[in-house]
Amino acid sequence: MHSDNFSSISKVIYTRNNSSFSSILDFSTPTTPKPQVIVTPLKESHVQAAVKCSPKYGMQVRVRSGEAKTAWVQAGATIGKLYHAIAEKSKTLAFPAGVCPTVGVGGHFSGGGYGFLMRKYGLAADNVVDAHLIVVNGRLLDRKSMGEDLFWAIRGGGGASFGVIVAWKIKLVTVPETVTAFIVNRTLEQNATKIVDRWQYVADKLHEDLYIRVFLSSATSSRRGKKTIRASFESLFLGGADTLLPLMQQSFPELGLVKQDCIEMSWIESVMYFAGFRGRSLDVLLNRTQPNVRFFKAKSDFVKEPIPEIAFLGIYEKFYEKEAEDAEISFTPYGGIMNEISDFETPFPYRAGTIYKIQHMVRWEEEGTAYVNCRDLDIGTNNKGYTSYKQASIWGLKYFNKNFNRLVLVKTMVDAGNFFSNEQSFPPLSSRKKNRD
């Protein structure tokens, strides 16, 4: 077997020693013979490799179909409602979407969709296998009728430029019955800077079952009420605490994780935990609004080289300013399967080579702005409800890199008249000819 193929297929091979083996074998009964190896192919080459290699090792292949593990989700549903529906059906199935349960799946999936399972299974958009889309002439299209170019575009390019997405077909993913979560806080007095600096070098290299994100914010020290900086490490591990602790000791001992920090729970309980609903009924996930609405603005970037440790001192100075009392910076780790997915597989281009995503955020109470799918409306927009090609390329290249021009071509193909337009929608090529200034 070619080494590249082996590396790829090894991601979907489960032996009896693998912690996920039992949950993958969810079609068995106590009397069902247990296979030596399970292969959950993601593409045809995985099947080819399994068939070719099995005879060399004296193994026979048994094909098990009917375990599609897919679901249709209407675009108006929230992430919380999706998670609730999955939990009602299974303890070992999940979906790699975001943390905030009131976010609608329509925009979340079409823009990419970050979540705690991204290092294991990728973004939400990476796990979409079909969609229903209404285009400008009123036709309702599925993946087959819309074609692969348009299906590619709506999985990460945003759906609002191309039509109205009414439903998504998603591929559910397997999780163990027990996962482990922790939130560990460290202040400057507890060596936070050096721990965060070390996190930069290991976060994308940790085992793909382990996800640790970091929040930096101002805080009040226990020492005479002095202001300080707090680093919060939030983590989900797909397994038990007894497996996690030695893994952390080996990979990230600087955090000083101990068993008392770890909370074992089910995957759906981890959803509740990180959403701030621990101990409440799962039905809270069905709420479409939150009781306390806060407004915020955020800007993102993708970090390819660690920030020098000394640079954090300059960041801390900003936190001490009055306007930054409610500000925070978050670091979202990459690595795992995100390194395996091509930059061109979907419009979302930030894959291998990215250490983490950094997001700068400030919050306030008064109404006065809106948030739509993490867009930065400070970049290359006007107030006319549309953008020229020249303007769009400013934000388009930042969002999508080399995928931007393909998205413009798809836009031209399905909506040449630019019916679906907004401040940051893709311009058809006709607008490029009219706006060569």
Automatic annotation (TrEMBL):
<protein>
    <submittedName>
        <fullName>Berberine bridge enzyme-like 18</fullName>
    </submittedName>
</protein>
